[in-house]
Design goal:
Blueprint lengths: L5 H15 L7 H6 L4 H8 L6 E2 L6 E2 L1 E5 L4 E3 L2 H4 L5 H11 L3 E4 L11 H4 L1
Antiparallel strand pairs: 1-2, 3-4, 3-5
């Protein structure tokens, strides 16, 4: 499993904003400056489907844990553990398949430009 840094996430979102022309083109630095602005991320998430907001730390994420078909999202095991243990997550994911770890930007319009991050 690839661990993306916050800077990786902001770089990908910056490219998504440029390609989809949502809001205005924002640099990685401008997005980093918005890190704690939950209202900004919530508004942006209405326009871009390539990320979610972590329910524990409230930071944007392009991959993470999806609980109960999107009722909750967590960017890391640490954030997931604020609500449940690994065993509880495994039990949820085995029960009905509506809880899982995923990558939301896989189908994004600029995913191909980020293959260098996968190395």
């Amino acid at each position: 499993m690839k661990k993306y840094t916050n800077n990786d996430v902001y770089k990908i979102l910056s490219e998504e904003i440029k390609v989809t022309q949502v809001m205005h083109s924002m640099t990685v630095e401008e997005l980093c400056a918005k890190e704690s602005d939950v209202d900004f991320w919530e508004e942006l998430s209405e326009h871009l489907d390539c990320f979610r907001i972590c329910d524990a730390c409230h930071k944007p994420m392009i991959e993470g844990y999806c609980i109960d078909d999107g009722a909750e999202h967590y960017c890391s095991r640490e954030c997931l553990h604020t609500q449940m243990t690994d065993e509880e997550f495994e039990e949820l994911s085995d029960e009905d398949g509506t809880s899982y770890f995923t990558n939301w930007y896989e189908d994004s319009s600029v995913m191909g430009t980020h293959t260098e991050m996968e190395k």
